[in-house]
Amino acid sequence: MTWRSPLALLRDAVLSQKAREKELRSLVSNLPFEGLGKSKQPNRFFKPNAIKTNKYTPLFFIPMNLYEQFHRLANVYFVGLAILNFIPVVNAFQPEVALIPICVIMFLTALKDGWEDFRRYQSDKKLNNMPCLIYSRAAKHYIERRWKDVRVGDFVKVVCNETVPADLLLLHTSDPNNVCHIETSNLDGETNLKQRNALPGLCTSNDVFEPESFNCTVVCEKPNNNLNHFKCFVEKPDKEKTGAGIESLLLRGCTVRNTEHAIGFVVYAGHETKSMLNNNGPRYKRSKLERRLNVDVFFCVLLLFIMCLIGSLGHFYVWLLINCFNDIVKGHLDSPSLSSFYMFFTMIILLQILIPISLYVSVELVKIGQIFFILTDVDLYDEETDSRVQCRSLNITEDLGQIEYIFSDKTGTLTENKMVFRRCSIMGKDYPHKENVIAFLHHQETQVIPDEKLLQQISRSERSSSGISDPYMDFFLALAICNSVVVSMATTQRQRVIGLLKKSTTKSLSVLAKRTGSFWKVFDSPKQNGSSTSAHKRSDDANGVQPRALDPMTLSARPAAASGDVCYEAESPDEAALVYAAKTYGFTLLARTPNSVTVRVPSGEELVFEVLDTLAFDSNRKRMSVLVRHPITGEYVLYTKGADYAIMELLGTPGQQKKIAADTQYHLDCYAKDGLRTLCITKKIVSSREYQSWLADRKKALAAIDGREELMMASAVQLETELTMLGATGIEDRLQESVPDTITALREAGIKVWVLTGDKPETALNIGYACRLLEEGDLVINMTSTINLMDLLLKASVVFQVTCVSILDCTLEEVRRYHEDPRNVDTTQKISLMIDGDTLAIALSPDLQDRFLELAKRCRSVLCCRVTPLQKSRVVKLVRDKLKVMTLAVGDGANDVNMIQVADVGIGISGQEGMQAVMASDFAITRFKHLKKLLLVHGHWCHTRLANMIIYFFYKNAAYVNLLFWYQFYCGFSGTAMIDYWLMIFFNLFFTSTPPIMFGIMDKDVSAEMLMGVPELYRTGQGSGEYNFRTFWISMLDAFYQSLVCFFVPYLAYQGSDVDIFTFGTPLNTSSLFIILLHLGIEIKSWTVVHWIIMLGSVALYFIVTLAYSAICVTCNPPSNPYWILQNQMADPMFYLICIISTVVALLPRYTFYVLKNSIAPSPLIQAKHLDRMEPSVRDMWMKEWRSLRGGTEVKESRLSTPPSPTLETSVDFYPGFGDAASFVGEELSLNVITD
């Protein structure tokens, strides 16, 4: 290694920092500089690929770990007191003894930190030494190196089923179309294949890529953690620029699938890769209970200060008397003021355990135990997916028991997200597909039973001479082409579970197939007869698909592919459903490459469409388009699918189109009312001149770095105009099992449920009734706008805002009038609110937030439709911050990540849309119904157990430390202890440490069956819950009372005797043990064998250790030593009498209070516990009676009078529709008050 001066190293460090901070990076190949020194490498300023996630080294572990632990103020406090005890003028007992508790705690913490860091070190070492292939100019081929050897500017070759070592710009693949398929499960949990395209025009041959011939400059953006966006362009020597995006980037951690090999250029390495920038470590949230705990620790500090101040002032008074009446000590003692100052610190050392040093460690242990019971609950296990609940945040389990608002996504959260094609409308005519309901009932997502009339229409279009340009043919071509579905073969190296039908189908499906069989033969064109049949058969078999997709045998036996060779892998279940629907009618997607799509039409002919560009779906445009060149006509055809409100405004204006659009819109509304997910399908013929003009703008947008998203959006919008309506589709998504029961139970538990979805208002309303978010008889306030928000802002944003104010004020007035009505004093209004995204955007403005929240919190449920992911998170944050309530967000897709992270508790559902929501969540479940037990049972248990344990911990420490405080009044405030110092330490460290931990893990106030059967019991934890200001101070006052009893009973018993200090302290210490443990026994709600073992074991451990210590400790604590003290005490009847009287008198008030309270005015939990003791059949009967009585008294019919304002319109119809709603600004906003 060449020696370099410190100045050169400093200069390189500064230059490296500047290079990494630039917004754009210019990268070149390392090959021309191979073998040269590091200082001559062009990309030397960028991070190497080796990673290091461990924090410590063997040499610096102790100082660095101590530095980390001293970031906790509690550790600093106790270490400071231990050091203070070494000062002779203020020490309370032996300095070494004071170090034991904090040393034990810090040693255990260091062991845990060291073990975790060692595991991180092993993981880093394994990753850094994984093999990879890097091109070498000297060797003229790819050589095997380690991941840690990869540098920015290298050429890396990744073979099939290998993991990508760094972020690579894809330059070449073994695929003839330069396509690479990757699996990103290591990054986002998604197992479906994603397609990546090599950068075009960089190699002269499709078969061979020569890295040494790569003389381009790669310009890319600064590293960031966005996994879905990448800005880059490659500049050739002739200054020609080729743009690249995320579709050409292989991310570190991805796995190459179904591709023999792929070659890429390293753009980011090591800690600058997107995967490492997303690796933020474990998520940390502070629970509500923890925040309250910190406040009470502060109160304990304040209490300690007062007690020490009293001791200091008492010492000052005593020393004043000494100085006044004892002249002999004059001149030989410190001044009273200085002595009192020293005594203040002595008292802090003596009474330090008032601040519970082990409380935080005990809380962590309790949470680990609670998580164990959650993970092992068989009711939260899903057999279908072989998965169980996941706890990803270990420190907020108790928050599950205090939830007041739940914000839920709809698709995939309340529903299965398993889509079945149910209906379609083509050219204004509806085709209901009534038979498809059977496939839906039998969970056959890929099964589509064709509509007979539509089959006949397609056959007529097929026979006609103009069948190629027929709208019916275009409709199904659009379904097959306009998507991102990947076609793969099951014979590839990776075996996947594919979404195909089982070979055995139900009898009902076979019967339906026979009924429609006579219509299936219409696609047997003359070409398929005779000699051409075998040719077609060979061709079809080569592609793994049946030659006649509409043959009845194909449906019943192999509906998707012959021999199951073709797999459709879709990123969205919607796309897969549409592709299977197109296939049912003979339009089979056979292959997809970056430049072409191959579709088999009903005649058996294979059409290869040249893909000119794909305008991907985004949350702003709400649509997707594919621009292709028709293989027969040569026309440029743009197929577009999207939401109706995003498509309708882009249609052309010919007279016939207006009628088709109106009829289609009517069908869409009907589909939505049936709860179907809807999409519009359109087509546009693009002229050659328009295409060339648009292509130039598109290339500029692709090559841009600054403002690239805006330019790409503008180019897409530029082309998506003057569309021709082809039709619409309706896809059904089944509600998950037990969703209505779960929502009903959550509502009975006092939790308000909001559903936030991007669906149409009609679809959302239908699902709302289906899942019992809305009920018959509810008064539904419907606030929706009927025009696009952007148009609204351009036309009349001020007027619209004024209208929203009027609506909110008018509605709030009616709700207030309801509350003021004497007839409604003891009723809960059944009011629900439905609002769409455009109106919500105005309602969330700063000057309208308070009105909106006041209305929303008076509603039993809120349904937000057509909302964006950003609006979801804004709503959750607004409710959480303004109403100061505990919120929970649950979702299953990437669009739910924002609200999951904003909520106090985030729950991800591992469904059909990948694992991004799960990876961002605090807890993960597989079904929405699991939320019921997770909250009502485990949430309640976790909260009550931990809350009661924390209160007991404060009580225990206060009760014990007060014994030392009372003694100061009888020892001249000298800071002396009447209990041996070692026994004082053992008391909290061993004798009384395990029972509260066991109490926090295993106590069970009510059984799970009772909590599930009577959801109302969950309300006890909401708000301040079990642990609040009142319960804390009641326990502290009880601790003061019990300590007084425990101290003065032995004091009065031995008054006037000549017993020594430890003879007096031993029965006092023993009595305190019995009082503290029996106090816990009163608090324990359910005794088990474990409880008895721990409690009796603690008592046995106390006597064994104390007897042994008294027997062997002859000169441990001179001048007074505990030698044989306990042995002598146990031989004296007075010892037993003191222990019994102290324990009974100390605990009698608390026990009496509980007996009277539970007998005269039992709480719902006590009543439930009484029901728990009954026979199961009798208990179930009482539970039903309880729920019916509670429900009958709390919820009554609303009697909202008809609003006097002309802006409100009341209808008695179930759902009158938006057309009948009163309008404020033309047709911009409508408000319906719907009653049933």
TrEMBL record:
Cofactor(s) needed for function: Mg(2+)
Q: Which domain of life is it from?
A: Eukaryota
Bilayer topology term: Multi-pass membrane protein
Give a GO molecular function annotation for the protein.
ATP hydrolysis activity
UniProt keyword annotation of rRNA-binding present: no
User: Which residues are listed for ATP binding in this entry?
Assistant: 409-411, 575, 617, 641, 677, 757-759, 866, 872, 895-896
Which PANTHER family does this entry report, sorted A to Z?
A: PHOSPHOLIPID-TRANSPORTING ATPASE VB (PTHR24092:SF79), PROBABLE PHOSPHOLIPID-TRANSPORTING ATPASE (PTHR24092)
Q: What NCBIfam families does this protein map onto? A: ATPase-Plipid (TIGR01652), ATPase_P-type (TIGR01494)
What protein name is recorded for this chain?
A: Phospholipid-transporting ATPase
| The organism of origin for this protein | Oryzias sinensis
